[in-house]
Design goal:
Rossmann fold; 5 strands; binds adenosine-5'-diphosphate
Length: about 190
Amino acid sequence: MNIILFGPPAAGKGTQAKRLVETHNMVQLSTGDMLRAEIASASELGKTVKDILASGQLVSDAIVIDLIKANLPRAEAAGGAIFDGFPRTVAQAEALDALLQGRGAKIDRVVRLKVDEAALISRIEKRFADQGRADDNPDTYKERLAVYNAQTAPLLPYYAAQNKLFEVDGMGAVDDVAARIDEALSETA
Ligand code: ADP
């Protein structure tokens, strides 16, 4: 099974993806984590994307599509992928569909975590205080939220039209959200 965890920055996608990795035989494919690893290792790619991540803008579709493409065989071998933070544009979603189709696979479900904006902002303030991730500072976070609304939210109708979209309340305790996700994954489409 291949699923997409969908939602604005700080909706809890990474936390829930890690839990799903433990409870299901799946691999988490987080383009944000991959890009941060490139930056940490100071690779050429890392140098190219560093300032873009720091600004809260999106890196080019080609870069993230290549990263995903390189990791698909590994996810397939494990039994499926949890896409986290990808796709973020309609072009990425179309490329992902084509890549999967070429491998005789598809996206099975898109789980949308719904969290209200006030909760997102208070989560991010806490994460910034705890972890100090540069792009979690309040101004950059606002930019990331604006980018999400402008470029990523338009994917919702794309997946709704394919009858793949499952809405999950992302507010409240991690375990409660996890239980709701499990329910969405076991529901018949
Ligand atoms: P969050 O979900 O908390 O916003 P991510 O770790 O997914 O954070 O992404 C951090 C940053 O990495 C984004 O703001 C963007 O610059 C870049 N990035 C991650 N995934 C993508 C993607 N699919 N397309 C373009 N840029 C991406």
